[in-house]
Amino acid sequence: MIKVGIVGGTGYTGVELLRLLSRHHDVTIQAVTSRKEAGMKVSEMFPSLRGFVDVAFSTPEEADLKSCDVVFFATPHGVAMAQAPELLAAGVKVIDLAADFRLKDPAEFQKWYAMEHTCPDLLAEAVYGLAEVNRDAIAGARLIGMAGCYPTSVQLGLLPLLENGKALIETQTLIADCKSGVSGAGRKAEVGTLFAEAGDNFKAYGVKGHRHLPEIMQGLSAIHGAPVALTFVPHLTPLIRGIHSTLYARIRPEGRETDFQKLFEERYAGEPFVDVMPAGSTPETRSVRGSNMVRIAVHRPGNGDLLVILVVEDNLVKGASGQAVQVMNLMFGLPERQGLDVVPLLP
Amino acid sequence: MIKVGIVGGTGYTGVELLRLLSRHHDVTIQAVTSRKEAGMKVSEMFPSLRGFVDVAFSTPEEADLKSCDVVFFATPHGVAMAQAPELLAAGVKVIDLAADFRLKDPAEFQKWYAMEHTCPDLLAEAVYGLAEVNRDAIAGARLIGMAGCYPTSVQLGLLPLLENGKALIETQTLIADCKSGVSGAGRKAEVGTLFAEAGDNFKAYGVKGHRHLPEIMQGLSAIHGAPVALTFVPHLTPLIRGIHSTLYARIRPEGRETDFQKLFEERYAGEPFVDVMPAGSTPETRSVRGSNMVRIAVHRPGNGDLLVILVVEDNLVKGASGQAVQVMNLMFGLPERQGLDVVPLLP
Amino acid sequence: MIKVGIVGGTGYTGVELLRLLSRHHDVTIQAVTSRKEAGMKVSEMFPSLRGFVDVAFSTPEEADLKSCDVVFFATPHGVAMAQAPELLAAGVKVIDLAADFRLKDPAEFQKWYAMEHTCPDLLAEAVYGLAEVNRDAIAGARLIGMAGCYPTSVQLGLLPLLENGKALIETQTLIADCKSGVSGAGRKAEVGTLFAEAGDNFKAYGVKGHRHLPEIMQGLSAIHGAPVALTFVPHLTPLIRGIHSTLYARIRPEGRETDFQKLFEERYAGEPFVDVMPAGSTPETRSVRGSNMVRIAVHRPGNGDLLVILVVEDNLVKGASGQAVQVMNLMFGLPERQGLDVVPLLP
Amino acid sequence: MIKVGIVGGTGYTGVELLRLLSRHHDVTIQAVTSRKEAGMKVSEMFPSLRGFVDVAFSTPEEADLKSCDVVFFATPHGVAMAQAPELLAAGVKVIDLAADFRLKDPAEFQKWYAMEHTCPDLLAEAVYGLAEVNRDAIAGARLIGMAGCYPTSVQLGLLPLLENGKALIETQTLIADCKSGVSGAGRKAEVGTLFAEAGDNFKAYGVKGHRHLPEIMQGLSAIHGAPVALTFVPHLTPLIRGIHSTLYARIRPEGRETDFQKLFEERYAGEPFVDVMPAGSTPETRSVRGSNMVRIAVHRPGNGDLLVILVVEDNLVKGASGQAVQVMNLMFGLPERQGLDVVPLLP
């Protein structure tokens, strides 16, 4: 049994980790930390876990995280980088669901997250937690910076078009028009995400610049092997869970004869969590609710030169905690679907 | 033109006052105070008011509230009682939408609101702002404690049964099973009313005791002329605006022959904002969305001894700001519907 | 492996059966019938099932339901009673999720469902599918009329108070104020349950009489061993899944010394799917979303003579398909939790 | 007083016309037709209108529409073209909210609406009901084909960039990523727009081709004076009212020095219902809820070559019934804001 610690169990990615790990047959939840709620049963804060998770929140000191095999950080940005060096030194693997180990360039991190990176040396070692791109590296890693929710959907939607220097599409004019449910903002007391503010309402935000943009650009450029540029417009939509990314890519003359449906189907044929829908489909976010699946549809309206790629994911599962469990499975040599064989909840 | 000041314009009752008063032909909005947002245009915080309200938030000092004819307090509990004495002394009428002047007994106030009442002498003078009960007293008042959102719906639903010592129903076993939209909790940063918490979710709260219970009991007892007891169970339902109160009353033997439909219709025949629906109706909250109307339906299932009364209101209008404008109209001798002739928004 | 047939797989209870049964280790889904959609893959209608359910809809004729071990009817009222006799004669067990075998009196059935009962003889044999009441009878049955969604929550909320002629509460003045999510109305094209009608809206319905009332009265009377009378007021609330029942019961003088919290805890101590919450709790519908669990809280406001019992369930799981799987487990001697060990989805 | 008839008063655009016209000081509602509901009071179907609209539905025969000054068609496609010739011949002005008189080419109409156009001669006469483009023509017209909901937002968002042959942006690669609330689908019994289907769900639809695409292309081409091509991807989002269009336009070299914020502000300076937001804004759909206002924000991320224009409107008001009242005002020489001076409902 893998001994698991969770730092920061009071947010949505924390409770989602607990939902999934509590049914994972190879895992023991050894500690869930929250300095503020120490002593309270986790299931008192989240009654959905009554009967499934018996552990109480503990302080980081009590938690003895160094005795864990792996520690997940479901914390605000900046927490993981403060604790990771000591845990790694003790032989504990670290999976950070926040942004501390996503961006390779510490200057970029500082620019977007407004804090200095305290262990830039670990950035080089950290593996980006997107299994469909980095499966082998993840398997051998001891430190993972999990892919963000938007970046996961955008990268998986463009991956087959860009990989390995492909010249099928224009790489400097990509557009990602993304729509996220409100849980993506986390379980923080804020006016903007109140029910009476975000309900029956739709808006764009972060058009001037969003933290996920450099992550997406870094990821796509790495996939492509050359710089890729993209305009990213995120929107807030009144659903609880779910991201729908609508991606626009201009087909280059070299790509005009491509069977894009086939390209996507073949690329993802062996992927356990990427489902290429039949031609003409329009995937719904609820078709992946509660599951680690991503569903993708490829459109070429009027058989013209613009590709429209539709991607849906559950931002808390494939966009966060589910993907983190997938990565853990890889790190410990377990079957990739272990603990993630959950049928989406529809309706 | 009546010169109006609004203290606390950044919450839902504040913006709702502005929506209504900005179209009220006899009113000038002289000042909207917010110490925190002083200098910001009101319409910058609430873009729905662009083109309708040109005023900026001001500090209380700048606002010169003493030059107003009337000041509305759309503030947390405790603010109005601190400022009312000075305003009243300057000849300004005061309408408090919070609870400072609702409960007649300062000890009760202290028990439920956890603060000492600083001007208990004014409690005796203050008139309870429920026009259907206190129309004449309101017209002559200079200080109003507006009825709360739940209490308005419960009192209007039971008024015809209890008024003036009527013996139609048992008065010690009343039940009010009430459901409120989330805006009732205000525009405060809190986890419990986040979209991802309150959305797609339903729960009771405050079963042990809710601040509106003593207000309802005081109001009903005053209406009846004798003590009335009631069990109050509020629930949070995922709508933005709206309260639906389902009221249960046992018919006394003396009441069995009563035509309750007729009783309600006659009682409310002249009321501009109370609509008794045809027999058999089940009113919807959206049928009053954005309006000052209350709709009531009276049921007697199986022609038995239990009355079931259904009441809907918009908690921000008849349950708060609309009713406050109605009260202002009465205080200044204006037609009661002035500024409130708004068709509900459906769908 | 138990060979399972599902008649009527295009509604919400159908897709919910498929969600649960597709992960049930002792079951093979042999056929899902839909005359209208015959030939279409089930996962084409419900993409959430892609990768989990590979079967296509078949006509009843193709389906060869007589070769199944058990057939679930997730159909409109009237379908099961037409097909059950033949299936039972062929040795197939039948579990009806509709109302055909709920009411024991065919005249009552005809009154509420506006159709004659075509096999009244089977009504006597049919066992009411509420495991917490009828566990042993279910285990030996070949025909089950599953409990309705509202009746499940109301009966489980009152069971400990009424069982075996207990005299703790008044049995003629019970009130069930129930609130249901919109999926309870089924996946039928109707104006009243459109998003733009039922969204941001709350209303009562069926106050004059609802089909679940005779079922609740029959069930409670059977539990009590004497007639029980109840006023039932259902409401439609804008959530997808979930029922919240608020039950009101007057305590009899004989019941005043009872420790009701303890009574409920002891009664349900061994029940796998009934969770009595700690004293003072207010259970949320989302705490059981997607799961077969019912959560109950017992309140006695002001330590008076009125009990307020709060019950939450997922209407599509414990209120329908999950409970049907629970019943199937009992009928086939399987562990009761088999296939139902699902953590609720929160948020 | 203008005598108004409404054909088809049972849908959302019908009830919205009634909401607005019932408070319009220069209008008498003479008839609201519905063959199916003839005899029923309009306010019985829509209780929100109780006290505001006293008329009952009538059959078209009873309605004597020829005695009206103007008749609105709030009907399915095909109804207006059947009745318009006779009404026009009788001197009645006609405003069609459906698509019968939008497309100039009858072959295009037939292609997209699957019915032959029965009065193609009137197509040439009909004026496209988008006041910001056709104000003068509308004022002199007797037949209007109102602009559709999506087309209104897209055309207003691009108008300042394209008018009169401007060469600021590329005109063949425009993208309109649009998101609509569910009321846009109308008040029709359909599975896809049920609360339990469209709630907590987000999806694209009509990617292969949507009826509003030819209307948008025709409109933009007319504005520009040369063919304009656009990719249109509509999405369904779980809100009741509201459209958010996110428009993407490549800046041509000739346009690079343009101050786009100023361009938009100047173009719309005199428009009563178009609000250009301050630079950097992200307009919310709720900021126009219930009002005829459109709000627009212009972004140029990273000061690059892609313009991102955000447009919000209430699809039932500016996207349908409100704009129809605006057009009626123009046709009858009334102030354009008459009856439309409504503050948006927020929250």
From TrEMBL, chains A, B, C, D:
Q: What range(s) does the Semialdehyde dehydrogenase NAD-binding domain occupy? A: 3-141
Question: Where's the active site on this chain?
Answer: 149
Pathways involved: Amino-acid biosynthesis; L-arginine biosynthesis; N(2)-acetyl-L-ornithine from L-glutamate: step 3/4
Under PROSITE patterns, the record lists:
ARGC
A single cellular component GO annotation: cytoplasm
Alphabetical keyword list? Amino-acid biosynthesis, Arginine biosynthesis, Cytoplasm, NADP, Oxidoreductase
Q: InterPro entries attached here?
A: AGPR, AGPR_AS, AGPR_dimerisation_dom, AGPR_type-1, NAD(P)-bd_dom_sf, Semialdehyde_DH_NAD-bd
- EC numbers listed for it are 1.2.1.38
According to its UniProt entry, the protein's GO biological process terms are: L-arginine biosynthetic process
Family stated for the protein in its record:
Belongs to the NAGSA dehydrogenase family. Type 1 subfamily.
UniProt name for this protein: N-acetyl-gamma-glutamyl-phosphate reductase
Tell me the organism: Chitiniphilus eburneus
